[in-house]
Amino acid sequence: MWKQIKVMVSDLEELTEYVKRSSYWMRVIRAIGDNVIMPFQIAKKSGISNNHISSTLTQLREHDLVELINPEMPRGRLYRLSDNGKKVLMELTGG
Q1: Is 89 within 8 Å of 29 (Cβ atoms)?
Q2: What is the pTM for the complete model shown?
């Protein structure tokens, strides 16, 4: 069982390096890409089980890497990369 460690980073380079430490974070960010997407779609694209997607999305939201665009919906939630998430994706893909 892993222990969640909350680290706040402000610099894009530091944030990108922090993301690289978690294969789940990297895979989820890549799976979302430029899309507005539901968690089950992220799970399918990333190869991560549905059980882990929710906690990974929560962590990415806490670090301002993804946005939940319909928080009022208990089901059918939609996610997209935040501006910071898009910058990190560009750093990860060399774009």
Answers
A1: yes
A2: 0.84
Q: pLDDT (tens digit, 9 = 90+) per residue, 2-49?
A: 344 444 455 888 889 889 999 999 999 999 999 999 999 999 999 999
3-state secondary structure the chain: CCCCCCCCCCCHHHHHHHHHCCHHHHHHHHHHCCCCECHHHHHHHHCCCHHHHHHHHHHHHHCCCEEECCCCCCCCCCEEECHHHHHHHHHHHCC
CA distance 48 to 40: 10
pLDDT, one tens digit per residue, over 38-87 is 999 999 999 999 989 999 999 999 999 999 999 999 899 999 999 999 99
